[in-house]
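User: Study the fold:
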Amino acid sequence: MELVYFGLFDNCNARCNMCECWLAPRTGLSLTHYRNVLSAVLSLQPRAVRFTGGEPLLFAELPELVSQAAADGVRVSVISNGRILGPGKIRALIDGGCQEMVLSVDALREKHDRIRDTPGLFDRCMEAIGHLREAKLDYGVNTVLQALGADDLASLGETLRAQPNPPSWWHLIPVRGDDALRPSAVQRARMRELIPRLRDRMASAGTRMVAADDPFLDAGPAPCTVPAFTSYVRGETGDIFGCNMLVYADPPVGNVLQWRARDAWNSLDAHSLRARCATGTNRSCARCDPSSKAMNHVLRELAAPVAPEESL
């Protein structure tokens, strides 16, 4: 295992139209519980841990988990919607050993706020980028491509590019699971024309853009090695999934609280899943997209001291 998504909970302070985390019951598990799950995960010696949710910043003791992971030499990042990412939280995360923040920004101003159903959220994200600059902390940006924000894509790119601290990378993720949110045929055609030019434009500012030229091309499952080096662990339960894209699509392959972590990672179900993914025969992989697969390879590269070989 090289890359772990550590999902704390579904607790969230936004009401995004593409996500149902905000509808899930709130949980209030203890720091001790999360430490135990994280300790099991760290026994597998991952190179990178990404804390995610929900909104992980809602867990007041997150910096202590960051510190626990960083103490093992792990590259730690935190994914946030930016709503409560102020200077104090950034400093606490840095002091704990966080090396990267990830902000979710889907469109400009009122469109982003409508997508996330959170007034003022876009401005909070821009303020957070300024705070990250002052703290000298790297960040990346996730953008979910959907109809409401599609026409802002070029302008959003220019806004990010114009920052004194442009993002290290920018991941464009096609919306999944709700056809009502998909961009129109006209919008998708514009994306296909725009994305190659935008990729070059962002590269000139030092931002690596991770996006398929045709984000909404439905090619079906394709051979994939991501589950050979990636997993998603639910912090609430200890369940381990093949990757971040299979959390809600396939059953868990093991549990790091009920089994030894290495046994969970090497279970028969885990090996079977990896074999199906490697041959492009895992039907649940149809919900994935080339850019999300590519992003995991980028994250693997960022966490590796040298360019990684294929994981076994």
Observations:
- Residues 185-203 form the longest helix (19 residues).
- The first strand starts at residue 3 and ends at 7.
- Strands lie at 3-7, 48-52, 75-80, 98-104, 138-145, 169-174, 208-210, 230-234, 239-241, 254-255.
